[in-house]
Amino acid sequence: MNKKIIFIISLFVAFQSFGQLKKISLEDAVLQQGRKFGADKLAGFQWIPNTVNKYVYYKDTWTTMVIGSQGPTSPELASLSEINSACGTKLKNFFGTQWIDANTILISENGKYYSYNILTKSGKKIFETPENSENQTFDNNKVNLAFTEANNLFFLNKNNEKIAVTNNSDKNIVSGQSISRNEFGINGGIFWSPKSSYLAFYQKDETDVADYPLLDINETPGKLISIKYPMIGQKSEKPRVGIYNLSTGKTVFIAPKNNPEDYVTNLSWSPDEKYVLIAELNRGQNDMSLNVYDANTGAFVRTILNEKNTKWVEPEHPAFFPNPKSNNFVWISEKDGYNNLYYYSIDGKLIKQLTANKFPVREIVGSNTAGTEIYFKATGENGTNMLGYKVDLKGKQTLITKDLGVHNFIPNADGTVFFDEYSNHSTPSKSLLYDKKGKVTTLLVSPNKYDGYEMGTAEIKTIKAADGTTDLFTRLIKPSNFDPTKKYPVLVYVYGGPHAQMITNSYLDGANLWMYWMAEQGYLVFTVDNRGSDNRGYAFESVIHGKLGNNEIDDQMKGVDYLKSLPYVDANRLAIHGWSFGGFMTTSIMTRKPDVFKVGVAGGPVIDWKWYEVMYGERYMDTPQENQKGFDEANVLNYAKDLKGKLLLIHGTVDDVVVEQHNLALVKKFVELGKQVDFFPYPMHKHNVTGKDRVHLMTKVLNYVIENNK
Predict the structure, then answer these.
(1) HSE-up of 626 (CA within 13 Å, CB side)?
(2) DSSP conformation letters of 174-236
(3) Which pLDDT score, from 0 to 100, does residue 13 have?
């Protein structure tokens, strides 16, 4: 062959190879979204205490600590090799590192805690907790370390002496752990006072809570795992708050003022340590009082505020004290329809409503040292964002973050500099510093890690809800080679329940990468955040009260109507998939709207709400004694006879959130009806299938859709 021809062919092949886009595997789509494809960020960003504008973050997969100021230069501050040499540790990364002071960091390894001085490059062991300890919690000055062993609470003092705070031989009395199944904003059970004079803790008495059996198949013979699981309408745990006085070694207890099964939550300390503030909520979750107690005696002092609602009241945030020298505090309340900030004195006077937004405050992130400005995150008027704001004590509110998107917003101690890291629909990640005057310094802009890969696009739009007036956000993911003249099958991914928002103005728009993989298989992947979902205010969420599934399904059907209006949608090839509340939605829609979807895959679904737990379930459904009609309407078993499409049910066999009784009862019902469905268990997995097994899960789910939605 002519050499010139060979050269031209080679050049053509090389050009084709160079221009060819790579495909993302399903395994990478499941496991690598936050790793290989994760945007570059200033990982673990922290302001160094007792400094004005110095900060640290970690590079090279958390193996190098670097220091920054108000500029992009980042000299190395400490290396793992130095720390491991000084402390005798074998740390593989800096994950979990805390600061003791401006020159000293706190690191941990296998229950051992070390201090390391970054100036002298010296380290020493300061604490060692027992091997079976959990819930380790330091006081503010890192002088005392509290922890739990089994059901009891202990702490190590500065001399590394182990002090028992509780000593209950009855395993039903549990101290120092989360209570109320982590509802009401609870995520821990240990609360040091500001000056470490006291140690407050949650305690729960589970004596009357039913034991629920799970099976450990790894033993021979199989072994019973017994958990406490309070089902709707049945006996629940009895909570109280203990306050341990370190100087006297005595503990006082605060129980609910009304009924022993009421809730105590949102615990906070006044800066002078004289008072503990606790939100008490009745079991019916429609009457909440914020109470003040004497920290030394446990005596009730006063009720600062009370909120009632015919549906529910849900306190989720402790009182925030902006000034360490004042007992005036900020309370987050949804009483006007949206979470807003209210400024109170400790004697119960409302000093000022600080915000009156028609969008919800998400959380308070800090205040300046004078306590005159409070910094917080809120959605802004478009409910898909998360923005950074400040408000002063006169109610003057300022938006600090400049761009729409989902922001991680961290002020420094005196509120003169703000770290901001965000993404949005077109920005993988951008890391910035703002000064007091709004000047912006760019620290890092992440490249698009999906460059060079076949990657579809997402369209974010709004449709009207079933009420005809409310806007609902939708997300439609299309393949990279989308052709509007073709007809495409659709996979609808649904959650639909409270405290979750599927569509956000972040990179990939809140979607999982596997959805983009599915689009490359020739699918459209569609989601709508129906009424009842998060970040849209009380009215939007509370329409679900007492009738879970009804309005949510109606809104999802409006999403289906929108899909059918698109000329490139094959309305005869619609599939639906969801997990947990989304599993409830999937099984409900497949049985209550049997002619809409050809295929459904439901993971960990709630089937009959009377089998769900008290704290979440009674908020939204009350009890069967109070709302039998609502429970009957929501019960998937009552519609099983109408199933027409192909249905795959999936459950973790040791699920302690939605117990497997739900799914097995539905399978039993289908057997009784003579209807064929598919069921796949994930042995020894809890509510979510995690780790490498998640690749198996998503392969199972998506293959089932592809094979049956033809």
Answers:
(1) 15
(2) EESS--GGG-TT---SEEE-TTSSEEEEEEEE-TTSPEEEEEETTSSS-EEEEEE--BTTS--
(3) 41
Spatial separation of the C-alpha atoms in residues 183 and 612, rounded to whole Å: 14
Q: What are phi and psi of 670, to 5 degrees?
A: -65, -40
- Tell me how far the alpha carbon of residue 274 is from its chain's centroid: 33
Q: Identify whether 687 is a catalytic site residue.
A: yes
Expressed in percent and rounded to 5, the helix, strand and coil fractions of the chain are 20, 35, 45
Q: How far is CA 389 from CA 365, 420, 436, 437, in A?
A: 10, 11, 13, 14
**Residue 92 dihedral angles phi and psi, to the nearest 5°:** -105, -15
Residue 208: what residue type? Answer: D
Q: Can you tell me the distance from the alpha carbon of 348 to that of 291, in angstroms, rounded to the nearest whole number?
A: 10
Structure-token match 């109408």, residue found: 642
Q: Give the whole-angstrom CA distance, residue 623 versus residue 614.
A: 9
* Annotated active-site residue in 79, 499, 642, 687: 687
**Whole-angstrom distance, CA of residue 354 vs CA of residue 391:** 7
Distance CA 414, CA 688 (A): 41
Is there a catalytic annotation at residue 662?
no
Position 3 confidence tier, pLDDT thresholds 50, 70, 90: very low
Please check whether residue 23 is in contact with residue 37, taking contact to mean a CB–CB distance below 8 angstroms: no
What element of type H or E holds 28? helix 26-31
Contacts of 256 (CB under 8 A, 6+ apart): 239, 240, 262, 263, 264, 280
Residues contacting residue 147 through CB under 8 Å, at least 6 positions apart? 129, 130, 133, 134, 135, 136, 137, 153, 154, 155, 156, 176
How many Å apart are CA 447 and CA 451, to the nearest integer? 8
Spacing of C-alpha 510 from chain mean position: 13
Burial 606-620 (b: 16+ CB within 10 A, else e): bbbbbbbbbbbbbbb
pLDDT digits (tens, 9 = 90+) for 523-542: 999 999 999 999 999 999 99
Between CA 644 and CA 199 the distance in angstroms is 58
Half-sphere exposure of 324 (CA within 13 A, CB side): 9
> For residue range 34-89, what is the model confidence (pLDDT) as tens digits?
999 999 999 999 999 988 788 999 888 888 888 776 445 567 788 899 999 999 99
Question: Alpha-carbon dihedral of residues 306, 313, 267, 325, nearest 10 degrees?
Answer: -60
The pLDDT, as a whole number, for residue 124 is: 94
Which residue among 262, 622, 655, 685 is the active-site one?
Answer: 655
User: CA-to-CA distance for 279 and 521, rounded, in angstroms?
Assistant: 51
Token pair for 97: 């590192």
Q: Which of 74, 270, 423, 580 is catalytic?
A: 580
Which of 71-75, 214-218, 415-419, 569-573 is predicted least confidently?
Answer: 71-75
Tokens of 276: 């503990």
List Cβ neighbours of 459 (8 Å cut-off, separation of 6 or more): 475, 476, 478
Give me the residues paired with residue 190 across strands.
Answer: 201
CA distance 333 to 279: 12
- Judged by DSSP in three states, 406 sits in strand
Q: Give the DSSP letter of residue 319.
A: -
Bridge partners of residue 471, in order along the sequence: 464
Q: Is the pLDDT of residue 391 over 60?
A: yes
- The answer to whether 655 is a known catalytic residue is yes
Q: How far is CA 138 from the centre of its chain?
A: 23
